[in-house]
Amino acid sequence: MAEKGCCTPSAPQGGGPATLCNVAADLTGTTGRHRRDCVPVPGGKAQLGTARPLIAADGEGNPQRRTIRPLWWERGATSVAQFREFVAATGYVTIAERLGWSFVFHSHVPGGAEGTLGVEGLEWWRRIDGASWHHPCGPDGAPAKDEMPATHLGHEDATAFAAWAGGRLPREIEWEHAARGGLGDVHYPWGDRHPDDDDFQPCNIWQGRFPTHDTGADGWVGPAPVLSFAPNGYGLHQMVGNVWEWTAEPFRIRSASVTARRMNAAAQGRRLLKGGSFLCHQSYCHRYRIAARTGNTPDSTSAHTGFRVVYDAPPT
Which positions fall inside the Sulfatase-modifying factor enzyme-like domain (predicted)? Predict the structure, then answer.
């Protein structure tokens, strides 16, 4: 089956980064009173990409090996409690809050999605006024719970938090090395066995028929708490599934081919995300794998996009 387009909706262009920029630059180098929840991830020879690509057009193949430094990683994606701590300390206002809306999955819209605006070709994504990190389904939905991943965050929001916390977003090779947990060139943080809809659900993805029926066989029909599911060999939770994670790098295809150059030109300005989300399924978007990757405009926000922070030095 041909791989369909990815499930990351992009905000319409027009209010670019210069319009949206607020206090992020002022936070750079300013470490807040952030309560880290870290584990060490060893350095050494790390692999970027895979010798067994499943979506070659995304640039998963042609593995490279480089030496990287050891890092301290947050065990889970940044939680609502952690992000709330940041906002209380700094007064930061996220991109979604400044725009006044964000993308919510159609079946999660309180009262139903009828009458809301959708994304052409990705009609399950609906523009919901007032949706943001503290009300992820919109103002008529329940407030975000502390243990859940902070979502509806753009790349600028993620980098602002990371700077305040004294950390940064990871590079792609660092992310893949950490996700593999010492297992080598495997598809997933636990190995090569594919999740299914029946009896093997080691991560939070979709089960059933996308986009109309999620059976919730893994226990969740939306995002799960950041420390749910078993950790990998380095003690990291949910490196695949649950929420996409922003990285420090632009999105580009690692190839010198004419096709890759054309795709890179079209993707200029997009930032790299890793890990997939609770909306991924093998039949639709098989990007909940370590080598899988996608890109999005830095001001795009949605209910399945968050981030994770890494630190170059151990906690003091």
Answer: 36-310
